[in-house]
């Protein structure tokens, strides 16, 4: 590449960086101005001191973990079975997995409340019931991420031959699924799970209608409406969380790429 | 009692015939190869024995037990795949131990068995390595060890050498035969490589378009092919149209030249009879007491140990193979030469 082209590349990269990072830097700078005249972490201290912050954060984290687990249990065996026995249904399943992108969250949550708040379910009558409904809604919401990750992982291995090899050695379906297939798509499942967790942690619409201020998303929104500096610090905290998850995915994927390169020898 | 019996097996995919009326009896400890071109039904038949495909018709009996509908994990049949199919997340030792641990064998016995079997395939040193750290040949040895570790009643190999380079293929071929004879394990081997089938097998089943063309020892299949397909699929073969002069006496004519064949031939001939003769059976020059014909040299190819001469006999191409030697005197291109072949070396299809 010529020297001139390199310069242009750097220029566009710099411009792109500015576009992404300038608002973030401005928010961060603003979040440090809670104390008049000096930069301080006062807004962050106030956020962390608020018992509601930790309570809502832990609640949403719990919901996120349950969502990821339920999603894996539902989607992993389904995708595996479709790849193995019903490949003709792949198109349909891919379409279904994309529906959460098409159906707005508000439509989804109203539908859920309408169906599950009455007989015979009455799920919204108790905290546990509502939490179950929330997790169920999140499983639907995060399905595209989990489905894509798991499907890509399964695509990278020869599912049919590995299954047949295990069968010929005497393995049943449980052994095949959890000792042979799952460990080989572990990284993909973890990537999908992190994306699901990150999505659930910041989700507002479904949480506000089902559990209100008990969840982190509605809490952040409330703080944003009432406390100027704290809302900026919360935005930075949620950015940091998302980046931490993305960083973890990168870390895990790097391990996978290295394995693939070694395998290519 | 026959050890493994495949009786009247048929398999269709929709309206497409994959295997039709397949009958085979395999004795204990025998090495049988299914040989044929792609799509001839050899792998489908093997997969029916493994339990991965269910036949539409027919039965599979193993040691007298009907296993036709038995799930693959209950058949005690070991399988080696073309793509190795090693579990990427497990080390060599764990791969080999997998079938034993599934059967809940005690850990110390598993260790002992894994060590024994890795010794047989000469991979003891690589126990802790992972599949991606092994060469193709080593991976296939591990796959073989893994299939053998469970002491299968039948070992099935589905084109196990196809993905390997030529040198490794020849080495591993000899290794497979050595191990099979050492363990006396009943083996079915699928291949489209005739050299592999001829060098490894006790018997070969030649298949074409879902049907068995011929079953026989490698010697029988090569020297006494019973159909035109077998004759042309195994080795090089000259097929020259002939006219019948006296079938009883084995007299035929090629153009203006007459030939004689041994009249004890067992195969019925077709409406358009063809003389079949292997290139190595045809000699340059006159040999008394043999058929003698005149042909014209068209091309000469040097193949190392063999020199292949392309001739034209009454307008029909004919191959002739001569063993290479330093003092070999070859004819010139376009030269007319006399060629000879014994009466017993040719047959009419």
Automatic annotation (TrEMBL), chain A:
Spans traversing the lipid bilayer: 7-32, 52-80, 92-113, 119-141, 189-213, 233-252
Gene Ontology biological process terms, A to Z: transmembrane transport
PROSITE patterns registered for this protein in UniProt: ABC_TM1
Subcellular location: Cell inner membrane; Cell membrane
Bilayer topology term: Multi-pass membrane protein
Family under the similarity heading: Belongs to the binding-protein-dependent transport system permease family.
Coiled-coil region list: none
Alphabetical UniProt keywords: Cell inner membrane, Cell membrane, Membrane, Transmembrane, Transmembrane helix, Transport
Pfam families: BPD_transp_1 (PF00528)
SUPFAM superfamilies reported in the protein's UniProt record: MetI-like (SSF161098)
Major location (coarse): membrane
Chain ranges of the ABC transmembrane type-1 domain: 53-247
One CC-aspect GO term: plasma membrane
Official protein name in the record: ABC transporter permease subunit
Cited CDD domains: TM_PBP2
TrEMBL record, chain B:
Domain ABC transporter per the UniProt entry, residue ranges: 4-234
GO molecular function: ABC-type polyamine transporter activity; ATP binding; ATP hydrolysis activity
One GO biological process term: quaternary ammonium group transport
Domain of life: Bacteria
GO cellular component: ATP-binding cassette (ABC) transporter complex
Gene3D superfamilies on file: 2.40.50.100, P-loop containing nucleotide triphosphate hydrolases
Keywords in alphabetical order: ATP-binding, Cell membrane, Membrane, Nucleotide-binding, Translocase, Transport
Coiled coil: none
Reactions catalysed, as given in the entry: ATP + H2O + polyamine-[polyamine-binding protein]Side 1 = ADP + phosphate + polyamineSide 2 + [polyamine-binding protein]Side 1
Documented EC number(s): 7.6.2.11
Pfam family of the protein (one): ABC_tran
Xref: PANTHER family: SPERMIDINE/PUTRESCINE IMPORT ATP-BINDING PROTEIN POTA, SPERMIDINE_PUTRESCINE IMPORT ATP-BINDING PROTEIN POTA
Family of the protein in this entry: Belongs to the ABC transporter superfamily. Spermidine/putrescine importer (TC 3.A.1.11.1) family.
Self-association state and partner proteins as the record states: The complex is composed of two ATP-binding proteins (PotA), two transmembrane proteins (PotB and PotC) and a solute-binding protein (PotD).
Biological role: Part of the ABC transporter complex PotABCD involved in spermidine/putrescine import. Responsible for energy coupling to the transport system.
UniProt name for this protein: Spermidine/putrescine import ATP-binding protein PotA
Name of the gene this protein is made from: potA
